[in-house]
Amino acid sequence: MEGVDKEKVQKVIYEMSKGSKYFENEQRKEALTKQKIEHLRAQCATLTDNDLSHFQKVAERKMLELEASRDLSKIWLHTDMDAFYAAVETLEDPSLKGKPLAVGSMSMITTASYEARKFGVRAAMPGFIGCKLCPGLVFVRPNFERYTHYSELTRKVFQSYDPSFIATSLDEAYLNITSVCIERSITGEEVATELRAAIHQETGLTCSVGVAPNRMIAKVCSDINKPNGQFILPNDREAVLTFVYTLPIRKIGGIGKVTEQKLRQVLGISTCQEMLQKAAFLCALFSECSAGGTETPKQRQRKSIGCERTFIATDDSSLLFEKLANLAENLMDDLQKEGLKGKTLTLKLKTADFEVRTRAVTTRGYINSKEDILIYATKLLKAEMPLSLRLMGLRMSQLHDEKDDSSTSTQKTIDIFFRSSNSNLNVNGTNVQSITNISGQDNGPISVTTEDGYLVPDSGTGASTDQQDFFVHDESIFIPEQRNLVNYNNEAVLSNPVIGDGLGGAKIDDVTHTAKVMNSEKLDDVGQFISHEATASSGKPGQQLWIDGYICSICGFELPPGFEEERQEHSDFHFAESLQQEETVDSKRPICSERLAEKQCSTTPSPKKKLAEKQCSTTTPSPKKKLKSSKGGKHIPIDAFFAKCKKNL
Ligand code: DCP
Ligand code: MG
What we know:
By secondary structure, the chain is of the alpha+beta class. It contains 22 helices and 19 strands. The strands form 5 sheets. Strands 13-11-10-12-9-14 form a 6-stranded antiparallel β-sheet, with helices on one face. A 5-stranded mixed β-sheet has the order 5-6-1-7-8. A 4-stranded mixed β-sheet has the order 3-2-4-19, sandwiched between helices. The protein is globular and about 65 Å long. Bound molecules: 2'-deoxycytidine-5'-triphosphate and magnesium ion.
């Protein structure tokens, strides 16, 4: 956004999106952020000098531990393709070269060419706003097959430098180049230059590279000389410290818009150095894990399994129960296929007004049969009725692998459960409620948690009980500032009602199973998602879940677990697509500005070209295209970087 008139961009965004559902959703998110900020401020105000000196010691101890574990022996390289989707489209259609280009639709842009970025057009921006900012903006529909193809070509190159490279999305990867540097007696800088040239040679595309002693910093470095550039941070403690101190906190992976706002508005923190200065407050207010780990998806284990269904909003209860039964069956299939049982069942509901509610129940024993799932799910749903819904989902967490303990007998536990009597719940806290009387039947020792979108969450740590059987699991307790942590581990179990969701609204009635990965999807001519499952997935367009917490089930886009806000932005893209479809068919609710923008815009491809593109997408694109050499890329050396930073501070 350098050199962009940010004020003008903000004004246009506001004027153009006012009144749309997207805008309403953004407002809800903002309101929730404000509430969280207020809550944090209140928490902050309760901290005494004693608390702070305690947390200061905790922070210092932690810093000492980290210092002791500082490892400067490795050389990590992070690579990130430049304007990836847009660059691929330009490679496929050279007439787009030099034009301001947006990949996406009137609803949402996935990325923009650097020419378009000069006008303030960027990823996760609705297309009609992009048109207003940049009247000549050219649109191309995303073609995920193409991006996957080019991504695979880049991965072949990565392989030759680090066979265990970590790809975190289609266009990004981390390579440990320590061995290559030693074996070939070359520097990290030389590897970076060579690798960029090899990528260009193989794909015709440019990328930017960062080299540093660890992955997190390497990622920051790859962004410094973008596009088509590289930045090398030497394996030297002083250089690393100076570099990190100057960084704005937003540069740290996992610190997105919301966290940045919180840190700035509550604690006045803008740079990493200020983070260190306020370490006691950070320790007091934030959980350790939300400070940003570098754990990779590979190391994670499945925490939950589930499915959800989007449909045309209905208040017909028999229809809703029918859908619930289908969901229970699908959940049973997925659990049994993986040999899993679970203890906590979460029902997710999205009302016709896009309010998201989650209701969770924890059973005494592990369950995975349709009958058992349906008993609990029905009770949870009944308690919410009457209501009009557009989405329902069921998710099982607290999983147990049957292979680990064959003695667990679910049915027996359920029998005991229903035979038990007079087991009343005794719970405090507004986010926990009993369903004992829902059907006039005694439900025995279970815990139930509820959570609504748009509401200020209760900050109390939840529940107490005098009942030994009763169990309120940690992830059900809504402590706003530990939200990152909760979502990190239990992505879809208790997705944040507003921020963590943002899906649905599509017209297609089917089920997506999280256990099944849809490898690629693409938009057809009318903007419907057509699935091209590589596996026998019954997943269909219109819903989105993050498979294993980081792979988009709609397009296969990967974003690592810590990148919660980035994932949210990506979800918003699909969400806006579905809203767009809805608003297009609903003539009573047109978005005037969008229509206006559509008229103003030159949108490619033409019908003829679309056909050609369709044909093209089924054939393998030629990897080697003539493009400007990557050798002439940007190289601001480290000294110049520090000089520039000092000026900006
Ligand atoms: N993407 C998306 N939704 C987003 C952001 C990105 O679908 N909210 C897609 C389109 C991008 C690709 O992922 O081309 C890679 O994302 P990057 O953030 O790396 O952005 P670009 O590669 O487009 O640009 P840059 O040169 O800044 O890396
Ligand atoms: Mg990129």
